[in-house]
Amino acid sequence: MKTSAAQLHKSHDWLLVFGAFSLLSLELLLLFHQLRLVTVPFWSGRHLASGQGIGMVEQKVKSVQNRSSASLSWYPVVEGDAIVENDTVMTGANSTALVRLKDGGEVQLEPYTLIKFNRLSVDSGNRLALEVNRGAIKVRAATTGVLFRIRQKEVALVPQSEVVLTSAGTLSPEIEVTRGSVSVESLEVPQVAASAEAPKREILSLSAGQAVSLTPNAPAVISRLVVENPSPGAGSQVFYQGERARVALRWDGEGGERVEWDQNPDFKTSRLIPLHGRRDALMDLEPGKYYWRVVGRNALSGKMDFTVMPVARYTLASTAYTKSKEGMVLPLSWGRVPGAESYVLELSQDRQFRTIDRSYTPTGSSVTLESLPPGKHFWRVRATHAYLGDWPLSQVYEIDVRPQMAPPRPKGVKVLESKKDRPKRGSFYKWKPAFDLVASLWITRAQAATSDETGAEMIWLEFSWENMRGAKAYRLEVSTAKSFRKPLHTELSSKNTVVVELPDRQEYFWRVAGIDEDGDLGKFSSTQVIKREIARREKPVRQLASVPEPPPHREPTALPPAPEPPVITFPVAQVPRFRRMWLGYGSAFVRQGIAGTGFAVRGSGLPINRVVVGANQDFAASVLEFNGWLQPLQYKSAELQPSFGASQVGAEVLWRRASSSLPLHFGARVRNEIAVLDFASETVSLESVLFASVMVGTGWKSKQSWAGEGSLWLEVGPVGKRRGVGLLWRNRWNLPWKTPVIAPAVELLVHPQYRNTTNTSRTSEFTIEAAAALILQWTAVVDDVGLKR
């Protein structure tokens, strides 16, 4: 078979594709290696052993980048990288680098520094030459001299010398000699006439302890003042309370003529404080970072910096000694520190924090801890700021995590054939009523019925398990699914036996957990399975009777006796009782005339200006109810302007018999009006008017579609500075749009009242009040045992 040219061409395409793909992969690998994203073992970069090597990066902090002379791109620097001739190194914000030279010298680069490393090969000493474009450096020459250039100035270091260049980006950077000697030479040659002899460049020699300001004109030699024990010293923190800090600058040693301080490290906008022979200065400063130095005649002290920060008060929202249980989520919160950007929270099981188990960096003043293992844990917090720095650590707080209660051991399930075999249930809530409110939010019980929607028969099951030491109650869950995501039945019991009525199904899952003395739920037992053989009975189908044809004539036969009708018994219905809470918002009209004063009181605020709350509890033979309200008022006078405001706060406790031929209600009512009096522009006072009364009345109920209840009361206030009588009519209608949890209702109230005072002024008042509010009710059904649903 012959092979065409096209087939030969296609057979070699894969070689070209593979070669291109290999070259592209190698190029990407080298690029990622330069960007420090991957490491290539066989190519670790440039080495100091190179003939053009100058030094090696010994230390680096945060962002440090390098650019070679043959590249236009910047690449990250890591410790151990070589610096070769004509490399340019750049440091970013809060970044530093230390370059160790081949002869043992070093170059320290401060933040925002841009420097180029050159080698003067024409120089007999083969000295290192640096070009400083911006930033600050510290250069220490070892066995070989060092040159660096800045602002048309050349600074030469002899061996064993050390120099510090500060504020290299300003118009007048400073050079300070800390060891050895240096020379500063101006590279600018002044222009002269053509016939004149060319002048020599100016060279300035400096020794240790001297400094020079590289001004555009001739450099000026500055001596260093000897300042000892400066306060606040370099890097110190000054904490204050209030809006500003009172900072005292003090030092020992030589004195000066003034103190310079600024928030700019270059002292571009420095402020001066004359000393007049003193060795201290006093300033009021806001939060921030400050720099200061002592200035004499042609002498400067070293630059000191300090930070002014508000005092950190880590006020805890809860007690320092926090108790928790295994498996619980623990929220921690503390007082916000003014000016803090974020916080660092450390968690450890060692009080000295030699080891840190967990660390969090929230921006807010709170952290939610996940479940902790049992034992004692310790935590502390520190406020931080990117520019100001870190605040001191808070004190150490303790968390005691106790183990969760072990799971009970199930015994089994028993089917009760008759209801008379059911034992009486215990009442855990009789001795601990505080659990009622909690239980009403998360405990539900199935309602008793003879069959469910599918026609399944109802059975009574008795669940039992072993008693546990320390368990004050137990929680039983029954579900049709093993996951227990939506339990069919949940119940609390103080005993180790619970009787439940459920549809007769083939399979159920159940589990139980203990509740300790703190009310915390323990671990659930292993899931138990209930399996039953069920013979379902079909429901009888009712059919319409048809008229049959007349049968043929037959001889009469004796009819069998009619069967006796079955005896049907019904269970005795238990009267349910309720616990109800409500919250409402509405509108009220108030008109009150105070005779003898010229004042009139009326309702104020928005048209919706009344807040009402309440709750009631059904007992075996009575009902106890509580109502509270709050609404603003306004006092107006024809003589005094402007009007002033008041607030009316009231509460009432009502009691009535649950069943009685003559429904009598009794109660007590307290109302207080707090007014802010401002008759003169310079006088403000408070006045409180309290009125207490007892009430007797009657009530009624309606069972229509808009079911509700009403009451009529006679109010008598026989004691106190204000005495009077009144009538109170209240009616409440339930709205038909209710949910299984919340039922809305409308409440109307009319309240006329007459009162007078017993003091010498003898003022009297007549008040008419009408209010309407939309309320939301939460209702729970209870029985003698406790919470039912």
Inertia-based shape:
elongated
Main beta-sheet annotation? 15 strands, mixed
- Tell me roughly what share of residues is in helical segments: under 10%
Please give the alpha-carbon distance between the first and last residues: 90 Å
Using only CA atoms, what is the Rg? 45 Å
Strand content: over 45%
Task: Please tell me the overall pLDDT.
Answer: 76
Number of β-strand runs: 54
Describe this structure in words.
With 789 residues, the protein is mainly beta. The protein contains 4 helices and 54 strands. The chain starts with a helix and ends in a 7-residue tail after the last strand. Residues 47-51, 424-454, 535-547, 565-576, 679-683 and 783-789 have low confidence and may be disordered.
Primary descriptors:
single chain; 789 residues; mainly beta; 15-stranded mixed beta sheet; eleven-stranded antiparallel beta sheet; 4 helices; elongated; disordered C terminus
